[in-house]
């Protein structure tokens, strides 16, 4: 693969500015720019690998389309999607196939992150409970969100309620005197 790298610390972060990247067939993979994102570099590297493996030449327009389609995704997701496809298919990948694999990777990553966040939150709650700590304001709001509000309670006639309470008080006093 004929890629130009600038010596120094920038070379470890990805491809340095310079001439456009070229595939083994000599076609431009990434147009020349002042900055090449890590995702664009991953797309270029994986397209070059796929083009080499499947003996296919890509036009600059195809390369640009691939880059625009996959640039929002992290390089690890792009590389994983291409490697899965290259290991499972005997045909050059279509952009939709790789995008679906990338989105599947991202969904799995989000699910793992949510599970980890939930696990850590539960562990913290258990630690606090074991130490006998009281709930904080955010915990109180979360726990009490299902409780009814005063608006949900039906209004009661005050005079009727007073009469009921007086009756209950008389009954209690009567029970005490009998007992």
Layout of helices and strands:
Elements: E1 21-22, E2 28-30, H1 38-53, H2 60-70, H3 75-88, H4 95-130, H5 137-144, H6 158-178
Helix pairs in contact: 1-2, 1-3, 3-4
What does this structure look like?
It is a single chain. A two-stranded antiparallel sheet has the order 1-2. It contains six helices and two strands. Helix 3 crosses helix 4. It has 179 residues and is mostly helical. It has one domain. Helix content is 59%, strand content 3%. A hairpin with a 5-residue loop joins strand 1 and strand 2. It has helices at 38-53, 60-70, 75-88, 95-130, 137-144, 158-178, and strands spanning 21-22, 28-30. It is rod-shaped and about 105 Å long.
